[in-house]
Amino acid sequence: MNTETAQVDDLQLVALPSAVNCTDIFVRFTLTEWDLRPMIEDGVNAATELVRTVVDGTDSESPGLVAVRLRLHGDRLVIEVNSDRVRQHELPLPTGLTASDIPLPQRDPKKSAAAEQDDDYTAEMDPEVMQRILAGLSRSSPQ
Question: Could you list the residue range(s) of the whole structural domain that residue 35 is in?
Fold first, then answer.
């Protein structure tokens, strides 16, 4: 069995109630990126419960930070929540998978349609407006 960590992603949050919702979104996004959609509900439940425990024990007038980390390690998804101490929960990967079987997320190098439209846009500058802007800037500059 391979016991090396193959992938890791983490997020640092202020230990307030909103950290629970942010953790939910973070786990859903990360497990989707890692193509582990069947694990999303169990992962969200475990991670949000760990974060909720930290938040419930935190003084809301002076909250600390809480770090949430997801790791693919061997044949497990390891969920770590660290504030004053590390809290951890492990979930088995789907049958037959190990951390090294999970491919790294791939990004599409293609620009979005909106970005491509921006490339085609050329603004026409009115020379009179530019002169007024330059004159105004030169007046406000200290000599």
Answer: 5-101
Burial class (CB in 10 A: 0-12, 13-18, 19+), 119: exposed
Distance from C-alpha of 65 to C-alpha of 19, rounded to nearest angstrom: 10
Tens-level pLDDT at each residue, the chain (143 residues): 445 778 899 999 999 999 999 999 999 999 999 999 999 999 999 999 999 999 999 988 999 999 999 999 999 999 999 998 999 999 999 988 888 888 777 666 766 676 666 666 666 778 888 888 888 888 765 55
Q: What is the pTM of this model?
A: 0.71
Q: Where are the alpha helices (DSSP H) in 6-142?
A: 18-33, 40-56, 113-120, 127-140
Q: Is 63 domain-assigned?
A: yes
19 domain-assigned: yes
- Number of structural domains, the chain? 1
Asked if residue 81 belongs to a domain, the reply is yes
Distance from first CA to last CA of the chain, Å, rounded?
A: 72
Strand, coil or helix: 35: coil
